[in-house]
Amino acid sequence: MCLITSNEDLINSLKKAKDNKMQTVGFVPTMGYLHDGHLSLIKKAKEENDIVVVSVFVNPTQFGPNEDFDRYPRDIERDYKIAKEAGADIVYNPEVEDIYPKGASTFAVVDGDITKKLCGASRPNHFKGVTTVVNILFNIVMPDRAYFGQKDAQQVIVIKKMVRDLHMKVDIVVCPIVREADGLAMSSRNVYLNQDERKQALVLNLALAEAQKKCKQGNTKVTDLKAFIKETIEAQPLAQIDYVEILDAQTLDEIKEIKKQALAAVAVKFGKTRLIDNVFIDS
Ligand code: AMP
Prior knowledge:
There is one protein chain. This protein has ten helices and nine strands. By secondary structure, it is an alpha/beta fold. It has two domains: 2-175, HUPs (Rossmann fold), CATH 3.40.50.620; 188-281, Pantoate--beta-alanine Ligase, Chain: A,domain 2. Strand 5 (145-149), helix 7 and strand 6 form a beta-alpha-beta unit. The longest helix is centred in the middle third of the chain and has 16 residues, at 126-141.
């Protein structure tokens, strides 16, 4: 197990595994400040691969100008320890210049509606930053499999599309959302929440779970379910809704009625903290 900061060291460390074609590399890209959600990805990667690389990189290009890039929580020593305990073989913690060489001006962009709705609407360049960094990280690590969380549902769909469209030789494995005991989806950003915000943030999971139940009971009209989720969230005085959407789970297309699996997704701000959550629903 080692902590690596330079691309060269990483490539050399992985060379042996790459030369020995029997060894597979599993990759878990993260922005660090690891929690049990990240650990579930690392453990899954360890089950399925010989070598597991976890990257810890707070990627500047996926943050908007007034977002939390500067104050995003960082603690590489803690991350290293936790990742090691979960089974990681290498923690890769590059500097911005290692990822974006001076003068870099090349981006990987997934065009079209899927990057413009949901988080793409309020964070216009977010997915351009995500797909670019994931592309660069894939080129450096060259994993056989890469692990992503369903917590970032739109990110999963966008990355799968990029991998498909660009014929990238990596399998994308999606892991379920890990929640706190009281239902709040784990996130590195949860540390920003004060006590009242933390308490009221539980409404995200509650509203989504209740909508899921309603749908199972035969309430399949999207406008009604969205209205229900909105009202439930708005009942919490600190909640400011960014979006509440119910879309086709595979394509993110608009739907009116839930006939097959749909994705109910929300983004809500509590104070300065923007949280996202989602659930699959079907009748
Ligand atoms: P982040 O460090 O927030 O960029 O997340 C790195 C990876 O961990 C992404 O694929 C996320 O979707 C995943 N992840 C974050 N939180 C959770 C969670 N609560 N459950 C499952 N996966 C998660």
